[in-house]
Amino acid sequence: MEEVKWLTWAKQMQAISQNGLAYGKDIYDIERYEQLRSLSVEILNTYTKVDSNQITDLFANETGYATPKVDVRGVIFQDDKILLVKEKADGAWALPGGWADIGLSPREIVVKEVKEESGFDVVPRRLLAVLDKNKHYHAPSPYHVYKIFILCDIIGGSAMEGMETSEVNFFDRSNLPQLSEERNTYGQVQIMFDKGLQDNSEVVFD
């Protein structure tokens, strides 16, 4: 599914302005980049009805060269069922994971996130997929996000709710609960079943 045009344009404007502010020297160019950034915030405010100050804090407050954000998700199976956690934020279910932390590798992040959100201790086994959020059926987001899915094995711990999760359970592919589609789509979870239950599957990307 292609991203709606206005959101794509607003993101591109934000990236151009952020890069210009990071490397621009001429005061007149910097003023134009500030105007472009303000216009991108106005577009988002008009179409999403989110407060402009909130958009600025979340979307137009970064500095340096604009790059995609990284989201890391753990994929864990037990008896051919997949581990999902129920998100307190929206009451729907997701693969355990979240934003990548500065200073931690993808392996370290997935171990930390799975423990915090599900209670299980895991060891990462292999990479399953690197997906561009724009190319999947997610709700509109101000960020351009790469999603990393890592297959893990449980080595300890027990199912336990976390600060951001209220339930932990395993589901088979034909009986999935309502998913938190901001975090992962039904199509992505089905890809995890296809790739995670095969020993020698190739990594999916894009």
Automatic annotation (TrEMBL):
Domain of life: Bacteria
Pfam families found in the cross-reference section: NUDIX, Nudix_N
Organism for this UniProt entry: Paenibacillus gallinarum
Keyword Protease attributed: no
Gene3D superfamilies per the UniProt record, alphabetical: 6.10.250.1120, Nucleoside Triphosphate Pyrophosphohydrolase (3.90.79.10)
Homology family: Belongs to the Nudix hydrolase family.
InterPro entries according to UniProt: NUDIX_hydrolase-like_dom_sf, NUDIX_hydrolase_dom, UDP-X_N
Annotated Nudix hydrolase domain residues: 67-195
Keywords attached to this entry: Hydrolase
Protein name (record): NUDIX hydrolase
GO molecular function per UniProt: hydrolase activity
